[in-house]
Design goal:
The complex is a heterodimer of chains A (104) and B (168). Chain A has 104 residues and is mainly alpha-helical. Chain A has a single domain, classed as Orthogonal Bundle (Helix Hairpins). Chain A is 75% helix and 0% strand. Chain B has 168 residues and is mostly helical. Helices cover 73% and strands 0% of the residues of chain B. Chain B is extended and about 65 Å long. The chains are: A mainly alpha (104), B mainly alpha (168). At the A-B interface, helix 1, helix 2 and helix 3 of A face helix 1, helix 2, helix 3, helix 4 and helix 5 of B.
């Protein structure tokens, strides 16, 4: 009823677009909170590709990988936000431009 | 049916993700990101991965985003100041977008197995919690145990990082 059938390519293209949106956030935003949210989008794009692969190949292993990605993402967010809170206590800002102490 | 759900959910996902990246107030970003994660869970359902859809909503939209919102409240961050748009980076992202939309379906179509369209309950074999659990506790058991160690280390690390220095 609505054009062509949905194939693996559709899901992979959507995953690629989602990855690009997240990448744009990582590159263009200065607030570290938003950068971390964009990182979540990157991980989700990979998850979408994995689940699509699992469905179209008929194997469950990619879904197990998604399970691990979600776990690692949760740990990453916890540690990242803890570092962010520690930095905020020190500098009273969350803008990436203000953290250039280690730059040459 | 499959087309309708895919296109509407894909549009919703990309819209919510764009809002999550572009909005200025961190709370709106977080709420938009929750919407994007829920859309993604719905896409998991169209791929017959119902268990992962549930995990996605509970862990991501539930736990992780609540963590984000707590930190936003805790830090009391103000809306980001506007600055000139870096057009070169925006152009690079747009070029990447066109490349993905044009390139990926063609690349995938080069593999005959990938031309098979999505039909719900056609050949079935959707994997539920039982199959995933069996895999996790058999072939992926070492990884699964390592994940437990990772979470423990992360928990201890967060406590250490957020502890105030007793001397100061």
């Amino acid at each position: 009823m609505m054009g062509a059938e949905i194939t693996l390519g559709h899901y992979l293209a959507l995953s690629g677009l989602l990855f690009l949106v997240g990448l744009a956030g990582v590159l263009l935003r200065r607030s570290l909170l938003i950068v971390m949210m964009s990182l979540e989008l990157l991980l989700n794009a990979a998850n979408l590709a994995l689940v699509a692969a699992a469905r179209f190949q008929g194997i469950p292993d990619p879904q197990v990988a998604v399970f691990f990605v979600i776990t690692v993402a949760a740990a990453e967010v916890a540690v990242g936000l803890a570092i962010l809170v520690a930095i905020f206590r020190l500098k009273k800002t969350t803008s990436a431009e203000d953290f250039a102490t280690l730059k040459f | 049916m499959e087309q309708f759900f895919f296109w509407s959910l894909a549009a919703g996902l990309l819209l919510a993700a764009t809002a999550a990246v572009t909005l200025r107030n961190p709370v709106s970003n977080a709420v938009a990101l929750v919407a994007a994660l829920v859309f993604q869970a719905a896409l998991f359902v169209t791929l017959e991965a119902t268990f992962l859809a549930a995990v996605q909503v509970i862990v991501y939209a539930g736990a992780v985003m609540v963590l984000f919102l707590f930190v936003i409240m805790l830090l009391d961050v103000k809306a980001e100041a506007r600055r000139p748009i870096p057009w070169s980076k925006v152009l690079a992202v747009l070029a990447g977008g066109t490349a993905v939309v044009v390139g990926v379906p063609r690349l995938v179509a080069a593999f005959p197995a990938a031309r098979e369209p999505l039909h719900w309950s056609a050949k079935a074999a959707p994997f539920g919690a039982r199959e995933l659990g069996t895999l996790l506790f058999s072939s992926y058991a070492p990884l699964f145990l390592t994940t437990g160690v990772l979470l423990l280390v992360a928990t201890i690390g967060v406590v250490v990082l957020c502890r105030r220095d007793p001397e100061s």
